[in-house]
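step=encode ok
step=design start
structure_in=
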């Protein structure tokens, strides 16, 4: 099996996008590889980022409510 495959120079391979599982162009032209798009790339980064930084969305920030009712 020493026959070199007739691979086109810098042929674009198609890999599976880790983010959406779709086809991703693994080529120098795709700077988001192995992701298929910048959206998927940011999606993946945002995923683990939100895992580390869990922001309580429905919990209001702790505001000092010590009877300082100057705004009411
Ligand atoms: Zn994708």
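sequence_out=
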């Amino acid at each position: 099996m020493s026959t070199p495959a007739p691979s086109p120079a810098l042929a674009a391979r198609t890999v599976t996008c880790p983010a959406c599982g779709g086809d991703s162009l693994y080529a120098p032209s795709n700077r988001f590889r192995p992701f298929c798009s910048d959206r998927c790339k940011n999606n993946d980064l945002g995923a683990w980022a939100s895992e580390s930084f869990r922001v309580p969305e429905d919990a209001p920030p702790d505001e000092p409510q010590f009877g300082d009712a100057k705004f009411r």
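step=design ok
step=annotate ok -> The chain is about 20% helix and 10% strand.
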